């Protein structure tokens, strides 16, 4: 790394970068997602910007439901015309950022911490946040036999998805606000932080390896189905109960070369969110159907229903909360103070919102201009 490049996560960056990636034969990253057979190219449709395809990445969880629904219901394909949607799923932010940097995907749905990481590590040259997608959907779920109040969390073992990820930073910040001391790197201190993949966390909880977890949906509701109790909803810690959990990012060179394709994807995202909010039950079913297509397993109702209720779908990237989350990482000792000026380019999104009669959104001083 060049001497003038300040890493986002001190000492933890290498650990994040070393995480294994899932192989996808077509691009080397992520897992190929399935498009709905009903998402046919309309007769007479033309390619956008001459592109054969636009490669879209997202996670297989409900906080990325805009992408799940957009693919399942054909919103992306409709706006892209004869340019095919080429989707891929990821388990972790670092692997999606690697895919974006390599050109294996063009646009992605991702959490705030990986977006900050990717932007900062590249000296602001890698990506731009071009839109919002979701808020909320993160909870502290605990074993009620071991923890009955917030103060009981002290001395216990709490899982977070990954060192330096969005939920890890949030839990470390919350613990610090309780007056507890925790070494961010090792996770040891007044409370023990156990970094555990979301897929493994329910088993770790069931075995007693952890006493609770600060996790996104649907993992939180899976823990509740295992007998866990929601002790805290992270949204209660934020003004208006809103904070960014999922953003839309784009590779900067793709944005420069193919703005019409980016506009088409953002238009589809806005339409998908509008449809989700107007048809919550149908949207929930569509998201679950796409999860089943991608992973081979749908979520049961006792997990799907409560998880869905805790997520808000919004085109607003809630930029002010991204800055706050970065400050939390700095305070936890995971982040060198980053320069986030220019991380957002909301020009195309605001054009789309204005054209659809919706209110424009703010970059909170972190825009390109």
Automatic annotation (TrEMBL):
Source taxon at top rank? Bacteria
Its signal peptide is 1-25
Instruction: Give yes or no: UniProt keyword Membrane.
Output: yes
What GO molecular functions are on record for this protein?
A: ATPase-coupled transmembrane transporter activity
User: Could you tell me the keywords of this UniProt record?
Assistant: Cell inner membrane, Cell membrane, Membrane, Signal, Transport
Record's GO cellular component terms: periplasmic space; plasma membrane
Any Pfam family from its record, for instance, is: NMT1_2
Q: Coiled-coil ranges per the record?
A: none
The UniProt record lists the keyword Transcription: no
Q: Where in the cell is it found?
A: Cell inner membrane; Periplasm
The record's annotation in PANTHER family points to: ALIPHATIC SULFONATES-BINDING PROTEIN-RELATED (PTHR30024), TAURINE-BINDING PERIPLASMIC PROTEIN (PTHR30024:SF47)
Q: Which family does it belong to?
A: Belongs to the bacterial solute-binding protein SsuA/TauA family.
Official protein name in the record: Sulfate ABC transporter substrate-binding protein
Biological source species = Streptomyces yokosukanensis
Its lineage opens with: Bacteria, Bacillati, Actinomycetota, Actinomycetes, Kitasatosporales
